[in-house]
Amino acid sequence: MSIRYSQDFKDSLVKLHQEGRSLKSLAEEFGPSKDSIAIWVKQATPIMIKGQSKTLKDVKQLEKRLAILEEENEILKRAAILLAKK
């Protein structure tokens, strides 16, 4: 059974890592695995996209939103074709 950690908890460990704490020491003190903490750090690390700083988490949220909008667009196109045939 996996443990669910709050976003605040994850953010606090990421901040501690960014301040110089090792993944190993954080894992030993707070409980999550080093791999889990490394994933959280990677998700929170800013990347530059077209001159804007985004995190991997931001990019994934944008990709999900894009997929929803593309699906909605297809539905609207089909509806427009059906209405034009009437």
UniProtKB/TrEMBL annotation:
GO terms (BP aspect): DNA transposition
GO terms, molecular function: DNA binding; transposase activity
SUPFAM superfamilies linked to this entry: Homeodomain-like
The keyword rRNA-binding is annotated on this UniProt entry: no
Keywords from the UniProt entry: Coiled coil
Stretches assigned to coiled coil: 52-86
InterPro entries: Homeodomain-like_sf, Transposase_8
Pfam families listed in its UniProt record: HTH_Tnp_1 (PF01527)
The protein's name: Transposase
Record organism: Leuconostoc holzapfelii
Phylogenetic placement of the source organism: Bacteria, Bacillati, Bacillota, Bacilli, Lactobacillales
